Amino acid sequence: MTEDVPIAETRRGRPRSAAAHQAVLAATARLLTCGDLEYDDLTVEGIAAEAGVGKQTIYRWWPQKAAVVLEALLTGHLQLDFAQVPDTGDLRADLHTWVDQTLDEAFTEGYRSMARSLISALLAGAAHNEGFQAVTRIWEDSPVADRLRQEREAGHLRADLDASSAAAAIASPLVLRLLTSGRPEAAWAHALVDTALDGARTR
Amino acid sequence: MTEDVPIAETRRGRPRSAAAHQAVLAATARLLTCGDLEYDDLTVEGIAAEAGVGKQTIYRWWPQKAAVVLEALLTGHLQLDFAQVPDTGDLRADLHTWVDQTLDEAFTEGYRSMARSLISALLAGAAHNEGFQAVTRIWEDSPVADRLRQEREAGHLRADLDASSAAAAIASPLVLRLLTSGRPEAAWAHALVDTALDGARTR
Amino acid sequence: MTEDVPIAETRRGRPRSAAAHQAVLAATARLLTCGDLEYDDLTVEGIAAEAGVGKQTIYRWWPQKAAVVLEALLTGHLQLDFAQVPDTGDLRADLHTWVDQTLDEAFTEGYRSMARSLISALLAGAAHNEGFQAVTRIWEDSPVADRLRQEREAGHLRADLDASSAAAAIASPLVLRLLTSGRPEAAWAHALVDTALDGARTR
Amino acid sequence: MTEDVPIAETRRGRPRSAAAHQAVLAATARLLTCGDLEYDDLTVEGIAAEAGVGKQTIYRWWPQKAAVVLEALLTGHLQLDFAQVPDTGDLRADLHTWVDQTLDEAFTEGYRSMARSLISALLAGAAHNEGFQAVTRIWEDSPVADRLRQEREAGHLRADLDASSAAAAIASPLVLRLLTSGRPEAAWAHALVDTALDGARTR
DNA sequence: AGGTAAGCGAGACGGTACGTCGTGTCTTTTG
DNA sequence: CAAAAGACACGACGTACCGTCTCGCTTACCT
C-alpha cells in the first residue's frame, strides 16, 4: 500500500511509528467488525479517535479512507474468508453443502454488516483506485476454485476448464445476493452449482 | 417505491405534486447521465437545485438519496439495461457476442461511472431497506435469462433449468468485475458462457 | 385589528369563523403564558396547531406573528399589567413598595418569560409597524402615572409635572433591567423613586 | 465573552486563530453598519461568508448569533455610544441639549436599525445568558452618569445621589422610545431631565 | 553532545453537505 | 366559498466530516 522503497535512502527525522500504523489498521477492523458501522459510516476522524492517533497521521500514510480499509483487508486485520469446501468425494454434494453454509453464515447478522463493509469499501475504492482489483480474488480465488482445480487435475472435470471463471459463476451471484439483503432460496443456489457442473444444455 | 395503496382513502390537503416528483427523478437522471457526476458526488441539494424543487420535497418522499436513484432506475428515467442478446440461432455464439458487447459498453467511460452509481446506490440502500432487492432484477432478469427460457422451451436446454440462476451465473461475475475496474480477459468471460452451457464436468 | 363589520350584508358561502379568530388569540396567549415558550420560539405553525386552525387562516388576518401577539396583548388575552400602587398616604413609601413588588413579581420565573415575550414581540413588531407604539403605554401609563397625576391634583406635586414622563423615569429603567436578567439592588431601585420625587439637586 | 482564564494551562492542538476571531467581529459590524441589514436579517452564514470563515468557527466560539453581536459591541467593533454631554456650566441646559442630540441621532435612519440590532441581540441573548447583563452599561454608564458624578463631587448635586440610577431615569425612557419607533416630543424628554434634577415634589 | 529534520497527538481552520425547521404561498377537499 | 389540511419553493439552522494547517512535543539520525 505505502511505497516502502527505502533504496538505501536513509530518511531523516523521526521514523514512522509502526505502533501508530498498526493502531490505525486495528481500529479500522475493530470499527467495521464489532460496531454496527457500515463503510459509509466509517469516518477518518472516527478511526483516528479509536486508534488514539492524530488525523494527520492517517492522511500522511494513506491517500483515502478506502486505502486504509483495503490495507486492513490485505494484511488480515479484517477477515472475510469463505468457508472451506468439505470433501466427501462427492463434488456436487460438497458444493451444495458449501453454498448452504455460505448463505447461513452470510445471513448471520454480524457477518453481513462486515461483508457489506467490505464490498462497500471495494466499490468506493475500486472506482478510483487500480489497486483494489485485488478484492475480486476473494470470490474468484475462493476455496471453490481450489477444489475445482483439484478435481480437474484428478480428471473429473474438463481438462480445459477455467476454474476461476467457473468458481465465479457460483460465488459471484451469491455475493451479489448477499449485498442486496434478500436471501435467495436454496433451490436457486443449488441450481447454480448444478448449472456450473452439468451445464444448461441437455446432455 | 412510494406506497400507492389507493384504498379509496381520499387524502386531505394539497395533493402531492406529480410535476415535482417527475422533476426530481428527471434531474437525478440528468445529473448522473450527462454530467461528470459520480453517485458519491451527487447531492440532495444538487438534485433539488437542478429540479427546481425544495430540498424538503425530496426528503418528504424519499428516505435517502439512494432511494431516489433507485426509483429513477426502476422507472426508467435512468437507463442501465444490458444489451439485447443477438439471435443467430447459435446460442453459444450469441452469448459470446453479448458478453463481448456488454464488456465493451461497460468499460466505456461514461457508462461506467453511471453503473457504479447504480451499485453504490444499491448497496447503501439495500443494506437497510427491503425494497432495494428489486435491483437484483437488473442482472438476474437480464436479456440472457429471457433467451435461456426461450431456448429451454424450444427444447434446446434442460427442461428443469433454472433460467434465472443460469443467467446469474453469467451476468453476476461480469457485474462484479465491472465494479472493480479491472476489465476481465475475453477468454475468462467466454469461459463463463461455456461453463454455463456445457458444465464443468466431462461429458 | 381585523375589520369585523358584518353590516347585515349577508355573505355567501361559509361565514368567517369568529371562533377561529378567538382560538388563535387564545392559543397565542396560552403558549406564551403556560408553556416555557419564548417569543422567538413561538411559531405560526405552532399557533395554528394549538388553535386547531389552518396556517392560512392566520396569514389571512394578520400580517405577521408580532401582530397576533400584539392583538392578544391589546385584547387582554395576554395580561401583562403592573401591580397597583398601594395608597397609605405616604407617596414615597408607596412607590418604594410598588417598586419592590414589581421586582419581586418580575423576577418570578413564570412572569419573566412572559414579559420578555412581550418585549421581544414589541421590538420585532415595532421596528416595522407603527401600530406597535401602543406598547409603550404599558409602562408610561402605568399605575404609577395615575398615582402621580392624582397627587399632582391634590397639590402635593408640582403643578406643571409631566406625570407620564416622571412615571417613565421610574418604570423604564425597571423594564430594561427586567429584560437583561440582572435583578437590580433594592437601593438602586429606591434611588429611582427618590430622584424622581426629590430631584438630584440639593434642595 | 470567551473565558480567558490563563491558568498556565497550555492548550494542546492548534491555537485559536486571532485573525479569524477579529474577522468575525469585523464582518458582523460591517454587515450591521454599512449594509441595510437589520439584526433579524443577519445570519450566521452571512457573517461567516463576509468574514471568509467557516461557519463552524463561529459556532465553536460563540453559542449564538446574539453573543457575536454583543462581543462586537463590547469590543468596540460595533459603535453604539451616546453623544457626549456638552459642558457649558449649566447642567440643565447641557442635559436638554444632550437629550435633543440623542433623539436626533437616534431617529436618523441608519442609526435606528443598528440600535434595534443591539437591543434585539440583547433580548434574545439576555433571556438566557448571564453575560449579557453588561449591555445595561450602555445607558446606565452613559456620559450622563459621568457628568452627574462630576457635578455631585463639585457639590452641585446631593451628596448621596446614586448617579447610575439618576442617569438611568433619563436614558432608559429614551432607549425604550427609540425601540418602539415613536419619537417622543421634546417637551416630554426635557421633562425627564427636569424631573431628574428638580424632582416631582414642590420645593 | 547538540542540532535538526521529520513524525507524533491534538485540535482549529475554511469548506461542503447534511437533514430539519419555519416562512409565506398554493391547491386540494370538506362543511 | 371560507376553513382545514398539508404540499410547495425557499433559505437558515446547527452538526458532522472533509482534508489542511499549526501548535508543542518526541525521536533518532548527523554532524
How would you describe this protein?
Chains A, B, C, D: This is AcrR family transcriptional regulator. Chains A, B, C, D: InterPro entries: Homeodomain-like_sf, HTH-type_TetR-like_transc_reg, HTH_TetR, Tet_transcr_reg_TetR-rel_C_sf, TetR_C. Chains A, B, C, D: Residues 18-80 form the HTH tetR-type domain. Chains A, B, C, D: Residues 43-62 bind DNA. Chains A, B, C, D: GO terms for molecular function: DNA-binding transcription factor activity; transcription cis-regulatory region binding. Chain A is mainly α and 203 residues long. Chain A has two domains: 18-74, Arc Repressor Mutant, subunit A; 91-198, Tetracycline Repressor, domain 2, CATH 1.10.357.10. In chain A, 59% of the residues lie in helices and 0% in strands. Chain A contains ten helices and no strands. The first copy, chain A, has helices spanning 18-33, 44-51, 55-61, 65-74, 91-106, 109-126, 137-140, 143-153, 163-179, 186-198. The longest helix of chain A is centred in the middle third of the chain and has 18 residues, at 109-126. Chain A is elongated. Chains in contact: A-B, C-D. Chain A binds a DNA duplex (31 and 31 nucleotides) through residues 10-17, 20, 43-46, 48, 52-57, 59-60.
Write a compact overview of the structure shown.
With 203 residues, chain A is an all-alpha fold. Chain A is 59% helix and 0% strand.
Judging by the overall fold, what is the CATH architecture of the largest domain in chain A? Orthogonal Bundle
Largest interface: A-B, 56 and 57 residues
The biggest beta sheet of chain A, please?
none
> Fraction of residues of chain A in helices?
55-70%
CATH superfamily of the largest domain in chain A: Tetracycline Repressor, domain 2
Oligomer: homotetramer
What fold name stands as the CATH topology of the largest domain in chain A? Tetracycline Repressor, domain 2
Beginning-to-end CA distance, first to last residue of chain A: 49 Å
- Number of H/I helices of chain A: 10
| Rg value of chain A | 20 Å
Which structural class is indicated by helix and strand composition of chain A?
mainly alpha
Q: Averaged pLDDT of chain A, please?
A: 84
Q: Tell me the overall shape of chain A.
A: elongated
Low-confidence stretches of chain A: 1-8
Number of separate strands of chain A: 0
Number of domains of chain A: 2
